[in-house]
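Following up on my earlier thread - several people asked me to post the actual chain instead of describing it. Fair enough. Here it is, all 112 residues.
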Amino acid sequence: MVGSEVRARMLSEGRARVIVHMRLPGGQHVPEGRLSTAALNVQRSDIAGVRAQILARLAKRNYQMLHQYSSVPLVTLEIGPDALTELEASSLWVARVVEDTINAPTLPQSEP
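Reply from S.P.:
Thanks for posting it. Predicted structure:
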């Protein structure tokens, strides 16, 4: 559930910038272009609800919200060790936690 790179960053720096992949009560996330308006609204509501559950669990922990998304089940956080422990204990809502890194474009013909 927690990537080894997150643990390594936590050990070396005492903090880590992470992307939290949420578990949705309705099952797997479906790209919005494939959903009816009603299903899209349900999925967005599920994302907001799960995010609220996770953030409520982190309320007294050492974390900072960096970005939240309305259409995908992800949230970007900067966390301390206590928040990592809480995320690990939240397996009902958290599918996995990975390090948030900047990746260079891989297409040679990509625009600058």
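The domain at 4-99 is CATH 3.30.70 (Alpha-Beta Plaits). That should answer part of your original question.
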